[in-house]
Amino acid sequence: MAEPEVIYDVRDLVCRFRQPRTSLRHRTPPLTAVDGVDLQVTAGQRFGLVGESGSGKSTLLRCLAALQQPTSGSVRFRGQELAGRRDRQLRFLRRDVQVVFQDPMASLDPRMRVRELIAEPLVAQRASGTHERVDELLDAVGLPRGSASRYPHQFSGGQRQRIAIARALAVRPSVLLADEPVSALDVSVRAQILNLLQDLVERFHLTLVFVAHDLAVVRHVCDTVAVMRTGQLVEHGSAEEIATAPQHPYTQALVAAVPTLRRALHGATPSSLLRDVPSEATPDAAARPDRPEPS
Ligand SMILES: Nc1ncnc2c1ncn2[C@@H]1O[C@H](COP(=O)(O)OP(=O)(O)OP(=O)(O)O)[C@@H](O)[C@H]1O
Ligand SMILES: [Mg+2]
């Protein structure tokens, strides 16, 4: 069988940030957010990146999206080097790779209607048939077509994330980068959005890079998991291996913390939280008290 195509090939990636000076005499040394990371993502893989807050997950993801220039090292996308390229040399990447962020309210312009928000990337590419495509995308993310004429503030958090996902899928990307896409959502809605993402990844044959704090969430969505700590990948393997036989003490602590934290915070284990949720995404508004009134 042919080897799957290598989508991302990251070598010795380092990303440092300048720190504000705290003394007149001495410079504050730069902060190393990503510290010599090597990784490969192949076509169709669902690659999870997990680690505690500040471990460098978002910075690494931003390097994959070419939203952040690395200090050194190489990020190859389908064989093409991204590091050091200017924005106008990255058009090929912007078409093929889309990002979903944690906070849909911050990533959606509140002055634009849903139709304009979803169509914007298509208009930028001078695509035709945008009206039909917006309807198709609203169907795909489980929102009524009537949503198109409304504004982001008229939706619940989960619905806004559905809009952000529809926008990301508009240009038919082959790679989706998701940075904590459910962390800002109410716990009752998280499983629905995770299931939606999973369905869409399968349906559109997407390659997924998925960042989260929570190993239970990553395990639910991903087939491969890398564990990040203070800018380095400390462990890497199949989601099953990482969850059931973690090798690195940090991963072991992360695995041990999952059910305890879940129980403490939500009174539920990850499996009970994610079990029995219909895989067919349904609009979460119906179950939410803050459902906006249709306009
Ligand atoms: N633009 C920036 N300027 C300066 N420091 C930054 C910048 N972006 C990130 N950092 C720092 O780099 C480190 C890694 O940040 P990053 O956001 O990548 O972590 P993270 O793993 O995504 O954390 P979280 O889980 O809280 O989102 C942090 O110490 C952060 O303060
Ligand atoms: Mg982050």
CATH architecture: 3-Layer(aba) Sandwich
Q: CATH H-level name... which superfamily?
A: P-loop containing nucleotide triphosphate hydrolases
Mean pLDDT value = 87
* CATH class type: Alpha Beta
Q: pLDDT below 50 for ≥5 consecutive residues: which ranges?
A: 267-295
Distance between the termini: 54 Å
List cofactors, ions and other ligands: adenosine-5'-triphosphate, magnesium ion
Order of helices and strands: EEEHEEHEHHHHEHEHEEHHH
| Radius of gyration using CA atoms only | 20 Å
Question: Could you give a short account of the major beta sheet?
Answer: 6 strands, mixed
What attributes does this structure have?
globular; disordered C terminus; 295 residues; six-stranded mixed β-sheet; binds adenosine-5'-triphosphate; binds magnesium ion; 22% strand; alpha/beta; 10 strands; Rossmann fold; four-stranded antiparallel β-sheet
What this model shows, in words?
With 295 residues, the protein is α/β, with parallel strands linked by helices. The longest helix is centred in the last third of the chain and has 18 residues. Strand 4 and strand 5 form a beta hairpin. A 6-stranded mixed β-sheet has the order 6-7-8-3-9-10, sandwiched between helices. A 4-stranded antiparallel β-sheet has the order 2-1-4-5, with helices on one face. Helix 4 runs parallel beside helix 6 and helix 5 crosses helix 6. The protein is globular and about 55 Å long. Bound molecules: adenosine-5'-triphosphate and magnesium ion (MG). The site of magnesium ion has 4 residues, from helix 1.
